[in-house]
Amino acid sequence: MAFNHLPAAMHDALEALSVMAVTHSMPMAKNHRPRRPAGDTGSRPSPGEVLDLLSSGESRAARITHTEHMPAREGRHAVWPHRIRPEVIAAVEGAGIEHPWAHQAEAAEHALDGTSVVIATGTASGKSLAYLAPVLSTLLDGSEAPNGRGTTALYLSPTKALAADQRRAVRELAAPLGTRIRPAVYDGDTPVEEREWVRQYANYVLTNPDMLHRGILPSHPRWSSFLRSLRYVVIDECHTYRGVFGSHVAQVLRRLRRICARYGSEPVFLLASATSAEPAVAAHRLTGLPVVEVSDDASPRGELVFALWEPPLTELHGEHGAPVRRTATAETADLLTALTRQGVRSVAFVRSRRSAELISVIAQERLTETDRALARRVAAYRGGYLPEERRALERALHSGELLGLAATTALELGVDVSGLDAVLIAGYPGTRASLWQQAGRAGRSGEGALAVMVARDDPLDTFLVHHPEAIFDQPVESTVLDPDNPYVLAPHLCAAAAELPLTEPDLALFGPAVPELLPQLEGAGLLRRRSTGWYWTRRERAADLADIRGGGGSPVRIVEEGTGRLLGTVDEAASHTSVHEGAVHLHQGRTYLVRKLDLEDSVALVEEAVPPYSTTARDTTSLTVLDTETEIPWGTGRLCYGSVEVTHQVVSFLRRRLITGEVLGETKLDLPPRTLRTRAVWWTVTEDQLDAARITPEILGGALHAAEHASIGMLPLFATCDRWDIGGVSVPLHPDTLLPTVFVYDGHPGGAGFAERAFHTAHAWLAATREAIASCECEAGCPSCVQSPKCGNGNDPLHKRGAVRLLTELLREAPEPLRPAPEKPEPLRPTPEKPEPPQEAPETRTPPRTAPDSPDSSSARPGHPCSSPAGPEDPGAFPGPGSSPYGPELLDVAGIPDITGVPDVPTASAGSAGSGFPGGPGGPADPGIPDGLGGLGGPARDASSGR
Questions:
Q1: CA pair distance 764, 878, nearest whole angstrom
Q2: Distance (Å, whole) CA 104 – CA 109
């Protein structure tokens, strides 16, 4: 029974549930009956049959807005290069692989030639074997050295789950090779007593960028024998290294190359990526080396049926009477329940830890009604679990013991879960690369598979389910990262100097921004120049200055008030939005209420509770233009890109009913403002354009505000960002432009490249924004088009039709679409034609749909400025007042506002012209932080606000 079919008083079905991790509350079955014998595919349902099962019934069939049928594809074989050792080829054949695919053989040839290569082919195309074959062959050569470790290899993955899965795969493949291949994981879960053995004897070390940054490079003398023999560095799932995180990893890799050169090695980089645009360019920016790309996918593929699913409208009403759709969380839980009952092995990917817990609990409760044994075969998988719990879940999923799993992106990246029949995707994951990566988890053995994307109630998801061409007819995005960001580069220069003194020849390795930064680091007392180079001057660990997954600052400890037990930590910059007083905080399946946030001592005191609501912070934001780097005319208006300073303050939080997202109330907060220097794109309109668009002063604020909300929601379609990576401000009269202006800015110090990408794709981006608003069926604005659940002034004013007319007029006078202009190196070889999309024309099933325009309606207040901050899922979005990426102990000497080379400009105070209220898009139904299992030991960082 769907939640929206229940009586209104029973709509919140979770009030009586205790939200606990499934692995904690119910043991998994040990003696279940397998659904089908291994190798028996006769009873395996076809993807179309599975979809028919899910859509049975008139109400459910209407929820499918589009179905894409992608036919099977034949594979193309080749032969291994003759330099691959016979023992390795025999081991591969023993694993059931008689011949490699053509792209595997090509990548292996490049690796053996000593050429760095990126393999950018589809999911389940055998990328792992493409780099493992040359790596294992070279390690066998090195095993013949007197010390048994003449060559070594380093493997980097973005998550612990993927590293553990790869170790299992390497052990199985290399078992016939005996002890000559010694793989070992070195991360935060590695016991202390094992670490010395890994350093001294392992020849294939699997780790992550976090451990490389904080553990291996600062202690490089203890790794000298390993680094001296390092031949290959494997970077798996390299397309995930984007934005600020990717920029940090790029600098970590440059530090690694520098240390290796110190020990006389020059490793070859082997990168594996999902299908993406310009993979060689992205790999070059990540590693700093020329890279060859292999992107012609020669592997076979089974049939894929991909359905777009829009949950129905409910009887509930949101702000200003706007219609509210059933949540993607509740809809996905229903679908997972239905699949499990039919014995269909499935994974449901969600965007937050809390949603993973909720979906598993709901499905388990539903299955208990008919078969308790089935209920034990559904679980949740996310960050925050103990290492042994994660490994048990991975084994259970791999063996088939689990039928259904609700997982965060921690399981998205490459983990071998062969045998899955279906994948559910609760909300667009932010990029097409992630979408296809998640969809590819099913059917990994060349068999048919079903993928269903369930739309969240927000502008981008709604646009995509009604514009399938934006998914199926568009190439995967380019990876955006900026290693020269001074906020990223400065702490890594300090870390490099602490590892080995920086010398003049080193400077070119770290990029063209180094000569400008070094004098500032000297002036701040962080580095000291001597005749032989630049030296680190502090007692503190220099590596601690860069939090590669966050924004720096001292983390806030989350402590249970009654017991004093440390539950975890939250990045300092995210604490105002995630652990403010009254916030609902989720940790390892348990729910807590924050009783006090002590900013001076960096402690949040919590107590366990089971509230029937979640919390969402609201903020005010003001923005000052520091420097306009580029501008072009759009008719009489202008499109600009440059540096800005943002002042941000959390002012209140909303309590929302679980599952339905219904607002129960708002509570005011008294927290200090924070400042951020970053990059932004903005556009202005003139009085003539407003007259042509019939925008009167009474509706101007609402039209700008609505366009701002929708444009933030649509930008992830054009830049590889998450909607929480960006923020926005709309002002009827901005003091710096003296015109009505809409700003969209990067939510990271120094920028992350997203606003720059928005500038270069502005025509297509704003055209899609206009289409998303105009095609929405609501009357006056709703969460699917222009409303935002985080808007600080309650989505008031908003004027939907005014936004459509304004964007129409702006686009009418816009120049021809701009081509992306950042400097990019040429790939070493041309990109071959990709066989994707399939050569056969895909069949489609798209129900007819009407899109009435919205009538004029607005509660606009003339001159009212509005804003949409980078959201709380973006830890590190806003450093504290006067803060820096160098850590709190250095604030008195490292004034980061000067590090970018832009002049100091007084910050506009909250409430002045240019200030406003936040409303970052994102549905209320899928709260929490995107999951990532980073590298170090100690308490897991869980920045979830429980929303």
A1: 29
A2: 9
The greatest distance separating any two alpha carbons of the chain, rounded to the nearest whole angstrom, comes to 83
CA angle in degrees (0–180, nearest 5) for 468-473-478 = 110
797: cis peptide before it, omega within 30°? yes
Q: Which of 102-106, 253-257, 923-927 has the lowest mean pLDDT?
A: 923-927
Q: Which residues contact 187 (CB under 8 A, 6 or more apart)?
A: 160, 163, 206, 207, 208, 210, 211, 935, 936
- Model pLDDT, residue 165: 82
Per-residue model confidence as pLDDT tens digits over 761-817: 999 999 999 999 998 888 888 878 887 756 656 677 899 999 999 999 999 988 866
Q: What are the backbone dihedrals phi and psi of residue 449, each rounded to the nearest 5 degrees, phi first? A: -150, 160
For 224-238, the pLDDT digits (tens) are: 999 999 999 999 989
| Centroid of chain to Cα 254 | 23
- HEC profile of 577-628: HHCCCCCEEEECCEEEEEEEEECCCCEEEEEECCCCEEEEEEEEEEEEEEEE
910 CB-contact burial (10 Å; exposed 0-12 / middle 13-18 / buried 19+): middle
Q: What is the dihedral of CA 287, 293, 295, 297, to 10 degrees?
A: -100
Residues 6+ apart with CB under 8 A from 553: 547, 571, 572, 573, 876, 879, 880, 883, 887, 888
Asked whether 293 and 239 are in contact (CB, 8 A), the reply is no
User: In 3-state terms, what secondary structure has residue 569?
Assistant: strand
**Preceding omega of 837 cis (within 30 degrees of 0):** yes
How far is 169 from 551, CA to CA, in rounded Å? 34
For residue 451, the cross-strand partners are 306, 423
- Secondary structure letter of residue 120 according to DSSP: E
> What pLDDT does 552 receive?
53
What is 36-97 written as a DSSP string? S-TT--TTPPPHHHHHHHHT-SHHHHTTEEEEEEE--B---B----TTS-HHHHHHHHHTT-
Distances, alpha carbon 472 to alpha carbons 80, 151, 367, 564, in Å: 34, 44, 34, 52
Give, in order, the Cα–Cα distances in Å from 319 to each of 76, 199, 704. 56, 58, 19
What DSSP letter does each residue of 720-775 carry, written as one string?
S--GGGEEEEEESS-TTTSS-EEEEEESSTT--SHHHHHHHTHHHHHHHHHHHHHT
